[in-house]
Amino acid sequence: MNEPHDSFSRTYQVEWQDIDFNGHMRNTAYFERASHLRVCFLSEHGFSAERFAQLRIGPVVFQDTMQYFKESHLMDSYRVHLQIAALSEDARRFSLLNRFFNESGEPLAQLQSDGAWLDLKARKTRVPPEELADAMKWMPRAESFQWLPAKQAR
């Protein structure tokens, strides 16, 4: 597994609060960095927390699948990449792929999150506004990208 060239990414460093009892990066720290990177992507594409609040819409994750390949320790630098792995044609449902690499480019972990856009008032999934759908469609695609069936209620 090589670092993707077509992705949205940021470099982070393993901090004290990221360390678990065994002395390596705790699993929830990976989830937190993945979430942070997703928020960065959306914010850079016009969807800040304030914008989501105005629209009364937000992302909801139904399933996370995490794989670990190599340990990461205190003060290690690592890069997190974001790509879209799957998207419904109406952009209601999505699967996001976060891949983590150390400074040498070796894979540390991979997180795939399957979700949808949630109407915060109705508490049901919904098709996102056109600008948000466009941002999702322009997100760099994983090599394994696939289109999901348009209508599958959750």
UniProtKB/TrEMBL annotation:
<dbReference type="InterPro" id="IPR029069">
    <property type="entry name" value="HotDog_dom_sf"/>
</dbReference>
<dbReference type="Pfam" id="PF13279">
    <property type="entry name" value="4HBT_2"/>
</dbReference>
<protein>
    <submittedName>
        <fullName>Thioesterase family protein</fullName>
    </submittedName>
</protein>
<dbReference type="InterPro" id="IPR050563">
    <property type="entry name" value="4-hydroxybenzoyl-CoA_TE"/>
</dbReference>
<dbReference type="GO" id="GO:0047617">
    <property type="term" value="F:fatty acyl-CoA hydrolase activity"/>
</dbReference>
